[in-house]
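Project standup — Tuesday

K.O.: blocked on the structure for the chain from last sprint. Re-posting the sequence here as requested.
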Amino acid sequence: MSYSTAKPLVSTGIFIALVIIFTHIFAIQTPFVRISFGFLPIALFAALFGPLRAALMAAAADLFGCLIFSPGLFFPGFTCSAALSGLVYGYFFYKKEITIKRSVMACGLVFLAIDLGLNTLWLVLLYQKAASAFFLSRLLKSALLFPAHVSLIFMLSKPLGVFLPRHSSR
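H.V.: unblocked you, prediction finished:
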């Protein structure tokens, strides 16, 4: 196996481990809301390797995390949501300068479409409860955490910028 093949493979394994640790170990979990930092390794991986690889890595991290920490409680909707998050972050960050504006757009899309939209739908399908019961607590979480997500992605992108692919001149 050549270095050019091994580097992305090893990096993917490391980032999968980071997502699992930040999502399952260093997280605050309630029945309807999880507060974690699992978005950070996904966003950084997406900036390094692009949307498709980030989607695959995030989906794999979700699968492995579910197998390790929640045996028997797998739901494919959450894996789809994880993959979509990787796609979104990759679209906004890969080979582009990570600015506050890009961070706001990426985090906003992830929060609105994936966290508030799809993940609330998955919870309703799983627990068969009224969507409003889930939605209000998730909306509050998103409103409180949105500035933190944007800030963390932007702040971490600066010192890690030397590792990121050069952005295009557009």
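K.O.: great, moving the ticket to review. The chain has one domain: 3-161. The longest helix spans residues 100-127.
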